[in-house]
Amino acid sequence: METKPKIIGSKNKIEPDLMLKISRMKPVIKPTKPHRHEGYHELIYLSKGAGQHTVGDQVHEVRPPMGFYLNLGQVHCWNFSRIPDGYVVLFREEVLSGYPKALAHLFGMKETFRLSEEDPSVLQLLDVFFSDFKRGLPLDVLAAQLNSLIYKTIQLPQDRRKLPPTVLDEFAIFKKLLRENYRHLKTSEAYAAAMRISIRKLNQICQAATGSNAIELIREYLLIESKNLLTHTGLQVTEIAYQLNFSDASNFVKFFKAQTTLTPTEYRARL
User: pLDDT of 172-212, one tens digit each?
Assistant: First the structure.
């Protein structure tokens, strides 16, 4: 009997009525299956542990003290070789409605960052944050603590660009539009129109934030999603092309090969 293609699972670790949740890392080393968390951001702070953390098609070595940032819908999985310790902070964007600069800073944050062994202030802040969450303090108090945590985190060593606040805000809008519309909007003209700015202005924003222009970022995001589906599902190439709204499989193959020099089938065979 033919088995149905597997799809990337979605795990919801935050209850529908919660805007924010902080918990301790589970003391287990069982590998997790690739999955995504829909509708919320995730900040992970590890003081102990070892192994690998795969985000999209990037494999990161887990060498605490360190942390990870996961944007909305990113596919990831863990493969620990040593029991982890630390905190996981989950939050919906709405919780930062009173702190727009903190939310904008997230879009300039890399997937990994280092925690200082000499300065334990971030982990101390997390200890208090976790205790206050468990005690059921009001959301506005917890939101203020999250704001402080984000500002402490962006000061940690990471490969980040110093961006003017206006560029951060506009780039955050572009990234949100891209995340929500990448299947259907595949040109810089479409995103510039959605943002009501010129293509030149959109490219300037993208160049300042990442060093790449808008179409390069659009193709990069589409490629990451293509790789996710090729790596983590059993979907046929024609089915992936349909999911990603290509006109036909041959156009999807041309796109993928132009970005990687491999066909989707060749890429999958190397996994």
Answer: 899 999 999 999 999 999 999 999 999 999 999 998 887 78
Name which of 27, 18, 208, 17 is nearest 108 in CA terms: 208
Q: What is the pLDDT of residue 5?
A: 45
DSSP H helices, the chain, are 100-106, 121-135, 139-154, 165-181, 188-195, 199-210, 214-232, 237-243, 249-260, 264-269
Task: Sketch the domain layout of the chain as residue ranges.
Answer: 9-154, 165-269
Unique residue bearing structure tokens 């700015």: 197
C-alpha distances out from residue 57 to 75, 99, 230, 260, 268, Å: 9, 32, 10, 13, 12
What pLDDT is stored for residue 159 in this prediction?
Answer: 47
Using CA atoms, how far residue 81 sits from 49, 52, 128, 225, in Å, is: 7, 8, 28, 28
pTM assigned to the model:
0.74
Query: Which CATH entry fits the domain spanning 165-269: 1.10.10.60, 1.10.10.10, 3.20.20.220, 3.30.300.30?
Result: 1.10.10.60
Q: Which residues pair with 86 in a beta bridge?
A: 46
User: 66-70 and 35-36 as β-strands: parallel, antiparallel, unpaired?
Assistant: unpaired
CATH superfamily of 9-154: Regulatory protein AraC (2.60.120.280)
Q: What gap in Å lies between CA 21 and CA 90, rounded to an integer? A: 5
CA pair distance 147, 151, nearest whole angstrom: 6
Reference 164, options 204, 214, 208; nearest CA is 208
pLDDT tens for 110-139 read: 889 999 887 889 999 999 999 999 999 999
Phi and psi of 142, rounded to 5°?
A: -65, -35
**214 with 202: CB under 8 angstroms?**
yes
